[in-house]
């Protein structure tokens, strides 16, 4: 029944003489087996799964003072976070025509807040992000990034997808409080002191089971329905329990909500303040800490940006069924270039580098297959600038459940890998487990590349390793030891 509805909707889009026919032809909706309704639904789900970044990015960037004692304003960060994510995601949808969404990358903004601004000012740090973005654009436009992508063996590309599935599932477990750090002993534990004792985590489990049932029964919009129902349940619980938040700097509640409590806000609308646009300094960091040290920071930013995005795109394209037999996907060069522009725009607006978000997999799982879904997501990000207080109503626990479900979907692709040859199985295994265990897609890719090259070379199969993979592996070695190198340069 659902398939018939999709075909009917797709035919209507193609046959009518109005705008739907234009949308269908431009975004190739029918040819990718989708429909306008499906794309809209997928775009909404992707936004709901990513909406937390509008609140979380300002918390991360605004919570650290730079080397000169300066800080970024929370309200201004909220405005530019939504603005850049919206504009770049729409641009990506129009140019690349893929159902991916971009926003401020969590790895990058954390690196800026924790490490970079201890050496330079915020304006100088954002200048480094802009330089990083320019390099990414050049690598994408010249085809170098595509060439590196082609050099990656098929088994590693699949392993990257599976690793991302494990990674986003782990993100969901951590964001929901289902998995937490321990004060001592094992690195992680179940809930609080080994048991589930918080209502927010119970909401996560309710959402996880509900979404899982809806998806298993192939209910259209199952992920979105589950997230909405979970949000309503969370609001009812909050109305009676009046819980705080785990990360409240004044009065943290260890059994509270992650990031924000699901309450009806006193203020729904807020006018955005774009004062941070253009507040960056391209050369100041080179003058403050020296050319070598600043170059090392740019190197780190480029490697993180480059391979996080490449790995995420690989996983999302496979999830959407858009990859060809050689591992490519439509308009790959345009996708790489726009992603680089996202880094430039993010630095230029002090929102941090914008990159493809793995959370967009939730929209793909809901049926998104084209750039129309990305445009919907981007449009909602632009709207979020005015409704930032309302966005905060959605508890992270609801989005976390969707991530776990999507992660489970992505892990099923491991069936495509032939694990009988240990030269393949070990690098594949290391790629998959390193991503969640180090909380980094780039780390997983680097470990996979290096182990693949070395194991094949040392087992007399070095000719099977593309020379570009050797080059990138050498770069990853530098990336992994960048701390000691930076220390030596600083000394």
TrEMBL record:
The subcellular location is: Endomembrane system
| InterPro entries noted in UniProt | Azg-like, NCS2
Q: Keywords, A to Z?
A: Membrane, Transmembrane, Transmembrane helix, Transport
Q: Name one GO molecular function term.
A: purine nucleobase transmembrane transporter activity
Give the primary localization class.
Answer: membrane
Membrane topology type, per the record? Multi-pass membrane protein
Q: GO CC terms on record?
A: endomembrane system; plasma membrane
Q: Does the keyword Translocase apply?
A: no
Q: What residues form the membrane-spanning segments?
A: 42-62, 74-95, 100-117, 129-148, 155-174, 194-216, 223-244, 289-307, 371-391, 398-417, 437-455, 467-485
Q: Which family does it belong to?
A: Belongs to the nucleobase:cation symporter-2 (NCS2) (TC 2.A.40) family. Azg-like subfamily.
Among PANTHER family, the record links this protein to:
XANTHINE/URACIL PERMEASE C887.17-RELATED, XANTHINE_URACIL PERMEASE C887.17-RELATED
Recorded protein name is AGZA family xanthine/uracil permease-like MFS transporter
